[in-house]
Amino acid sequence: YSTRYDWFKDEDGNDVGIIILIEDITQRQKLENMQMDFVANVSHELKTPLTTIKSYTETLLDGGVDDPEIRSEFLEIIDNEADRMNRLVKDLLQLSRLDNNQEILNRKEGNLISLLKAAVKKIELTAKNKDQHLNCLFNPEERIPVDMDKDRIEQVILNVISNAIKYTPEGGRIDIDALKRDKTAVITVTDNGIGIPESEKSRIFERFFRVDKARSRAMGGTGLGLAISKQIVEGHQGTIQLESREGRGTKVMITLPLSLKKGIRNIE
Ligand code: ADP
User: Fold this and answer.
1) Does 45 contact ligand 1 (Cβ within 6 A)?
2) Residue ranges of the Histidine kinase domain (predicted)?
3) Which of 217, 119, 213 lies closest to 159 in space, CA to CA?
4) Which residue among 33, 82, 162, 186 is least packed, with the fewest CB closer than 10 Å?
5) What is the pLDDT of residue 267?
């Protein structure tokens, strides 16, 4: 709590009363702490690749590496770390645009099934490289009309599927489904991967939160994917939820409102 007070005085300047203002600053304090945590996280996440880049560059500049194979290995590491920084800055800029409502969602009616099919095609190879199969359970002929910014919703779906691939061991199974329920479209991505411990589940949509930082980094993750996905889905008046059992698997459920225009056309 923060307290402030002021005296009431009469005409002669004598104290005749006091006004005390007690303000609950829990919320404000919380926000300030979150902002400080965020800045600390950003700095740390940028510093890690920078340190690697710096030390490998210095070693190369010292001229101590004669073996051309080791030299190109070093250059590859530097290149990878620069890519990581790029991804991080890109994600941060997008989050900041979403926070400030500057990321204009260009929503148009589109068929969610077509979008899912295109997304699956894009990421199929990544799954195949891990000997995983993406099972499309939705009816490819169905039309699920949603008013959406196609690029952004594709980004969300690719993020969720790529998480399923990343956090599921080789040979795993990933089911992708979509259906209409009442006035919403429901998309589910289910994997039989490593899952998320119950105690961590509530924090999974927080910025930079990762169950296993080292593992996520090794997979090229920034820890911002789900936070961004949540903002995008909520910008579409939708919801994103996650169910998970450690060691068993994870199910991500996204809902988006069905396009009303379709209904109007049906009446016509
Ligand atoms: P990252 O870039 O680390 O993947 P995300 O924001 O996409 O960041 O996800 C945050 C964290 O949530 C991940 O680091 C991981 O610990 C956990 N997670 C997300 N999806 C899954 C999943 N399908 N299975 C297990 N853990 C997951």
Assistant:
1) no
2) 41-260
3) 119
4) 33
5) 47
Residue 145 Cβ < 6 Å to ligand 1: no
Q: How far apart are the CA of 123 and the centre of ligand 1, in A?
A: 17
Distance, in Å, from the CA atom of 49 to the CA atom of 242, rounded to the nearest integer, reads 30
Q: What phi and psi, each to the nearest 5 degrees, are found at residue 194?
A: -70, -20
Ligand 1 centre to CA of 97 (Å) is 22
94: its two tokens: 């997008």
What are the tens digits of pLDDT across the range 16-32? 899 898 888 888 888 89
Q: What is the pLDDT of residue 195?
A: 97
pLDDT for 256: 98
Mean of the pLDDT values across residues 209-214? Answer: 90
Considering only CA atoms, which residue is closest to atom 21 of ligand 1? 163
pTM above 0.80, yes or no: yes
- Average of per-residue pLDDT values in the chain: 92
Which two three-digit tokens encode residue 172?
């795993």
* Geometric angle at alpha carbon 101, from 98 and 105, rounded to 5°: 80
Backbone angles phi, psi at 223, to 5 degrees: 80, 10
Coil, helix or strand at residue 184: strand
CB atoms within 10 A of CB 268: 5
Look up the ipTM and state it.
0.98
Q: Quote the CA–CA distance of 49 and 77 in Å, as a whole number.
A: 10
The Cα-based distances of 42 to 37, 103, 224, 225, 248 in angstroms read 9, 21, 11, 14, 32
H-state helical runs in 68-197 = 68-99, 112-129, 150-166
CA distances from 129 to 158, 166, 170, 222, 230 (A): 16, 11, 9, 21, 28
